[in-house]
From TrEMBL:
Protein's GO biological process: serine import into mitochondrion
Similarity section: Belongs to the sideroflexin family.
Subcellular location: Mitochondrion membrane
Alphabetical UniProt keywords: Amino-acid transport, Membrane, Mitochondrion, Transmembrane, Transmembrane helix, Transport
Domain of life: Eukaryota
Protein name from the UniProt record: Sidoreflexin
Keyword Mitochondrion set for record: yes
Database matches in InterPro entries: Mtc
GO molecular function: monoatomic ion transmembrane transporter activity
Keyword Protein transport in annotation: no
Pfam family, one: SFXNs
GO cellular component, one term: mitochondrial inner membrane
Originating species: Cyprinus carpio carpio
Membrane topology of this protein: Multi-pass membrane protein
């Protein structure tokens, strides 16, 4: 137990400089089983994490228990505020929640009412996720949230309905790709608008030890761009490849069950860095004047 007194609970469990290390971290904090735990269990995990940070590890606590507490903390509490996030907005809810909605969008794409309804459900879900995982150092007003939500939903609906009507005479497979086009278009609008304050005011950047160096708009743009690309990329396999598989299998009777697509989707990563040389001139000069060449990169929470 003595060894745990100096345990750094915020140190990465896996090597974050490697792909496999980042992948293990990603799977760890997005474990959908954590959404089944009661708030009381999550609060216990937070208390243990905070105790460890304060250098006071409860007697009898094992290293594995500390790792698990940090896993629960990272999966359910905002990295900036430490507040417990709403269940639907947590990244650990993305697999079951996103899976179900994607399945419905891929199944019910033939009629305009169905397209409108499921695109609305999907964008409502995305808006909540984007807001929940925003960089909390850049607050957003209810009006801005509303504008972002309406704009993204309108973009998705216009794209989906327009393409749906346009592809009436196109091969069936083309029509099956309409939901992906709508999701991609909406993400390009929803995320930047939901996090517009970050672009306008910048986000906090730190050195590798977590010391805050200032705020950067360029870091915000880079982080948001990475999130947009990752969201679209993550949606691509299920929404592009799966329709091809479904097109081939639909002729078989066992594939006539509408929710089979949802089941098939089951089978189908928070921090970013930026070179000091690419920051705004005033921030770059400030960092150089204080730290010289000791700080080459800054780090920031890009959100999820």
């Amino acid at each position: 137990m003595e060894a745990l007194k100096g345990f750094d609970i915020d140190a990465p469990r896996w090597d974050q400089s490697t792909f496999m290390g980042r992948l293990k971290h990603f799977f760890n904090i997005t474990d959908c089983r954590t959404v089944l735990l009661p708030d009381s269990r999550l609060d216990e995990a937070k208390a243990l994490v905070e105790s460890c940070r304060a250098g006071s590890v409860p007697p009898g606590t094992t290293e594995e228990q500390l790792h698990y507490a940090k896993k629960l903390y990272d999966s359910a509490f905002h990295p900036d505020t430490g507040d417990r996030m709403n269940l639907i907005g947590r990244m650990s809810f993305q697999v079951p929640g996103g899976m179900a909605i994607t399945g419905f969008m891929l199944q019910f794409y033939r009629t305009v009412p169905a397209v409108v309804f499921w695109q609305w459900v999907n964008q409502s879900f995305n808006a909540l996720v984007n807001y929940t995982n925003r960089n909390a150092a850049s607050p957003i007003t209810p009006k801005q949230i509303g504008v972002a939500y309406v704009t993204a939903t309108s973009t998705a609906l216009a794209t989906a309905v327009g393409l749906n009507l346009y592809t009436k005479k196109a091969p069936p497979l083309v029509a099956r790709w309409v939901p992906f086009a709508a999701v991609a278009a909406a993400n390009c609008v929803n995320i930047p608008m939901m996090r517009q304050q970050e672009i306008l005011n910048g986000i906090a950047v730190t050195d590798e030890d977590g010391n805050q160096l200032g705020h950067s708009r360029k870091a915000a743009v880079k982080g948001i761009t990475q999130v947009v690309i990752s969201r679209v990329t993550m949606a691509a396999p299920g929404m592009i490849i799966l329709p091809i598989i479904m097109q081939r299998l639909e002729k078989y009777r066992f594939m006539q069950v509408s929710m089979i697509q949802t089941k098939l989707i089951i089978c189908t990563l928070i921090c970013s860095s930026m070179a000091v040389s690419k920051l705004e001139p005033e921030l770059r000069e400030s960092i150089i004047s204080q730290y010289g060449d000791r700080v080459s990169y800054v780090y920031f929470n890009k959100g999820l």
